[in-house]
Amino acid sequence: MTIDLPTVWALVIALGVLIYVVLDGFDLGIGLLYPLFPREHDRQLMMHSVAPVWDGNETWMVLGGAGLYAAFPSVYGGLLSATYLPLVLMLCGLIFRGAAFELRAKAQRTRHAWDVAFMGGSALATFCQGMVLGTLLQGIPMSAGRYAGNGMEWLSPFSLFCGLGLCVTYACLGCGWLIGKTEGDLQRKLYALIRPLAVLLLGVIAVVTVWTMLAQPQVAARWFDKDNFFYFLPVPALLVLAVAMIFRASKRGLDRQPFAGAIAIVFLGFSGLMLSIFPYILPGSLDIWQASSPRSSQAFALVGVVLVLPVILAYTALSYWVFRGKVSTDGGYH
Amino acid sequence: MTFSPSALDLARFQFAFTVSFHIIFPAISIGLASFLMVLEGAWLKTRRDVYREMYFFWSKVFALSFGLGVVSGVVMSYQFGTNWAGFADYAGAVTGPLLTYEVLTAFFLEAGFLGIMLFGWRKVSPKAHFGATIMVALGTLISMFWILSSNSWMQTPQGVSIQDGRIVPEDWWQIVFNPSFPYRLAHMGLAAFLVAALIVCAGSAWHLLRKGARESVRRAFSLSLWALLVLAPLQIVVGDAHGLNTLKYQPAKIAAIEGLWETHEDGTPLNLFGIPDMAREETRYALEVPRLGSLILTHSWDGKIEGLKSFAPEDRPNSTIVFWSFRIMVGLGMLMLLLALLGAVLRRRRRLYEARWFLRFAVAMGPSGLIALLAGWVTTEVGRQPWVVYGLMRTADGVGPVSAQQLGTSLLLFVVVYFAVFGGGIYYMLRLLGKGPQPVVDGDPRPLPPPALEHDPLAAALGHRNATS
Q1: ipTM of the complex model
Q2: What mean pLDDT do residues A71-96 have?
Q3: Is A74 touching B (CB cutoff 8 A)?
């Protein structure tokens, strides 16, 4: 029996993207929540809560990109050509925000400017990532395995909505993370904030789902297929349950459940998307077998994934463990 | 002459611009990470505060350059898909997996342990912290391994076949360990160590010039000069071996570097200076030394070197550029050797920390490692043109379906963003270097916070001296 390498790679990349969305999602979310917390004390706490880990979080995006490049090069070329400008803007956002982590603490007169860079960079990067996702979902025009669009498909109402939707997603994750890392006054504000965010996020997922089904009959057909329907039904039910969990936790002052609830929502939303498009990797044009790189490439890179990914997960967990518990303002090294 | 750049010109310029900014930061990080590993090891062994003080100071410089390296590196990894989709499509089966290995074995290692290294002093034991420092240093070296393997394979490709107009990997061992890889890896590795040693040397000399320098400054200055004394001559030997390898696999590059047009049957002269003119097919105002070219490049008096005229005009790299970039690199290398040798002489005479002319020379040499590195990079990258995968794919065929307008817009964005962010980053790095190491308080592994009022490096340095004397 030979292993179906494209399927394995699709799973690896999906896992990488999911981990990225959760991890970099919450630290980008902190940048999105920043404007609501103008006090320097609060901002320092927010920064310190992610300073030791944000770099590792962002690496998952590079893994997703590199994995796509190695295993499905035509998708990499097609997606990146179709979403050129949003990607360039996303990179600019990530540059401003990544530099702000280091430079904010070293600046004195220009600290305010680096605060703006942190907020603006986070918002820009998140919004653009959402637009890239939206462009992928609505389908990228390809012919003979190469991109065949006009470079402006990303500018559609649907992808703009996805941009806003991802901002809500990351803000919700960031809020949940911060509840776990803070206490007192700041935490009370965050508790009040997470309830509307969770409801908003549920609404966003509903709109994206319905919109996708209306625009792409084959997605709707898959969900309302007699056999699939009952398998898929738990997804929306569990979504509502996760939101209820966040409400309950914020009322009782439980400080880990909100983040867990937010992760659950993201996981379910992400699974919903995967269920809608698999085995297509570019909906409507390329499935994972058509898009695969040579077997020798996929096999070679997979050896590395199998050997190294468990180790990465282990020391990433170790790093989070070392920095567990509530954050304080003197935790920085600056 | 009118200038209306094509998509190819813009993509090439954008790549050159972003990679030139990017390469500065990893080069500093690679060298400093190993330096930090040595410092922390010395501290664990001797428990002398001077090493810990050095560690704290240089780890701040490291953190800054590492952060800027990460953010500029993310841009690089996406550019293959955005601007060079043709290349990604043709050669992605080789370069994609190599990049994946870099992410898996290096990026995560660095990022995962960097947090512990910078913020974990009071969270883990000293030995565990040392372990984290070693992992970060190891990560920077592994990262260099993969990226240079990929770059070297593009320069000297092997181990692949071509099917349906795409490259298919056949033998990964041959791909990773391609003919120019060992030379490039050694040359780049030494260059990164030289970059860091020169920055440590110049930063320390700056404080020694201001008097009242701390023990940790003197120690860093001394260590960096020992490092230069070993690295500079070694780099010349490795560079020479790399040259022989290039002559074997990329003869057109060597001809362009030498500004050599004719093939001499009995010993090739060396053009010391001159202006290679691509249109007139000659090197104007050439200052030649007979037979020296053969001696240096083939290690014999009458070794034959192909001149540029042996190659079709469309296969020739731009000699005007690489002729000079190569000479800048070599000239700075010679100055580095001079600095190291003078340091050794002064050390014997016990005047290492006092000779002000020497300290000024050391300060002036601070950026020389970076300039030489960039010049060397220009030499090797421009010298391999017009090929992106040598002999297999032309650079012109590598651009993607992106329009010149989009490329122009993104280029403009990158230029503005890079100058704002990395300009700021370099400013803070210089300010940090100007501030110098601070004393560590016993029991508290963190350095003292700087005095609140002082904003500029000079005042901070002076204020600091008053506080401790």
Answers
A1: 0.82
A2: 85
A3: yes
Q: How far is B228 from chain A (nearest CA, A)?
A: 29
What distance in Å separates the CA atoms of residue B151 and residue B147, rounded to the nearest whole number?
A: 6
| Cα–Cα distance, B372 to B141 (Å, whole number) | 20
pLDDT at A82 over 90: no
Other CB atoms within a 10 A radius of the CB of residue A334 amount to: 16
Q: Does B402 touch chain A (CB under 8 A)?
A: yes
Nearest to A66 among B75, B100, B402 (CB): B100
B96 Cβ neighbours under 8 A, 6+ residues apart: A66, A69, A70, A71, A73, A76, A293, A297, A301, B88
pLDDT at B449 over 60: no
Instruction: Give residue-wise pLDDT tens across range B61-115.
Output: 888 888 888 878 878 877 777 788 888 888 888 988 898 899 889 888 888 888 8
Q: What is the C-alpha separation between B438 and B293, in angstroms, rounded?
A: 51
Q: Do β-strands A142-143 and A146-147 pair in parallel, antiparallel, or remain unpaired?
A: antiparallel
- What confidence tier does B3 reach under pLDDT thresholds 50, 70, 90? low
* pTM of the full structure: 0.84
DSSP H or E run through A146? strand A146-147
pLDDT in tens, A272-321: 888 888 788 877 778 888 888 888 888 888 888 888 888 989 888 888 88
CA distance B223 to B233: 16
Flag whether pLDDT at A65 surpasses 50.
yes
Q: Where are the alpha helices (DSSP H) in B2-84?
A: 7-46, 49-82
CB contact set of B48 (below 8 Å; sequence gap of 6+): B42
Q: Which of A66, A81, A146 sits opposite B77 (nearest CB)?
A: A66
A to B CB pairs, distance under 8 Å: 230
